[in-house]
Amino acid sequence: MPTYATDQQVLRAYELAKERYAAIGVDVEQALAQLAEVAISLHCWQGDDVGGFEDPDAELTGGIAVTGNYPGKARTADELRQDLDLVYSLLPGDHRLNLHAIYLETDQKVERNEIRPEHFQGWVDWAKAHNHGIDFNPTCFSHPLANDGFTLAHPDPGVRRFWIEHCIACREIGAYFGQALGSPCVTNVWIPDGYKDAPVDRLAPRERLVESLDEIFAQDMTPHNLDAVEAKLFGIGSESYVVGSHEFYLGYAVARGNVLLCLDSGHFHPTESIADKISSVLLYVDELLLHISRGVRWDSDHVVTLNDDALAIMQEVVRGGFLGRVHIGLDFFDASINRLAAWTIGARNALKALLIALLEPTERLRELEMAGDYTARLAFLEALKTMPFDAVWDYHCLRSGVPVGLSYLDIIKEYEASVLSQR
Ligand code: RNT
Ligand code: ZN
Questions:
Q1: Domains in the chain with CATH codes
Q2: 324-359: per-residue pLDDT in tens?
């Protein structure tokens, strides 16, 4: 494996960087200790294009789409776990897994409203052995009863009942995960319900959704299972109206008080960032779930890059002191590049953005702001952008025993040649 930098080079660069940060009042060791505590929830669905194991020929519906046909996608739970093992080995820290209900393991077909913890035992055993917490999601799409674009807000009470039962079953499975793994599971409800064209009645579907949610969440399942609800602006085929909009779920979470709000960074208008929402929402709800993603035109799910948006989100989490109240998950799916690389690049970028946020002399900046010195605030924030955070990141990777710099790519390429190419 070609070396990106020798250990000694990494250490030398780190010592210099540490001094530079110390000069502006940042304790690098403390930032790294905080970073090491954060578990990112890695979304299983990047590994197989949101296919799942219910049916090998299942078609992805629900207004989300994966494009690309890069070879080597996982076809079984074992393959997916094998891929995930490699990805986790390329990330500093201990991280979680975010599972969807369609990733169950069964011999015979099990209806979604009949799934039980035992259908996920393979995941639990694996998670235990590897020290991963698990988060969960009902799958309210890619199913005949979701094909007309409605699930929990469906006009037909029978269809609604089916999806209510599915969501309740998922919460029970979530509670099982939480208990078995000794770490609460966040079960996140996202539904695709909406209309392609402008509806006449925007209210009735929302009334039905409130009713369904109240039934789903009727039984308290804390502390092992925490519930979250995820809003969206539009999907493919629901361009004009989405039942579960931001206002809808924000209101729901605030009104009910025991439900987390999930903010997906790809689910808002293109110039709107979820970063600014965090401090507002956390005044009224206890905890947040983040789906870190990257919206590009119609798609809300591109691989996370180290861009201003990701950075601003992490800055808000850190500056607000919210690390203990925010669950960080990733949500993107790209089948046009090596899927393990997509996971790794996105997850490393999320962690790197968090590190950059942690390497900020926030108190000092706050003082400038309070003193009304916006000139110095701007100058300082700009200077921070070119501080040597990469040297700190490399050191963090080295110390955590994971590949430094780009060397993770060599490992992925090797895996592609020896494992993925045989699929
Ligand atoms: C869809 C939502 C949702 C999904 C996953 C697969 O727009 O972001 O979180 O991506 O449930
Ligand atoms: Zn999402």
A1: 1-26+361-423 (no CATH), 39-358 (3.20.20.150)
A2: 999 999 999 999 999 999 999 999 999 999 999 999
pTM (two decimals): 0.97
What pLDDT was estimated at residue 324? 98
Please tell me the residue having the least CA distance from ligand 1 atom 3. 190
pLDDT score, position 4: 79
Q: What's the CA gap between 91 and 158, in Å, rounded?
A: 45
Distance CA 20, CA 14 (A): 10
Residues annotated catalytic, as ranges: 190, 230, 232, 264, 267, 291, 299, 301, 331
Determine which residue's CA is closest to atom 5 belonging to ligand 1: 331
Q: Residues of the chain whose pLDDT is less than 70?
A: 1-3
Distance CA 200, CA 221 (A): 37
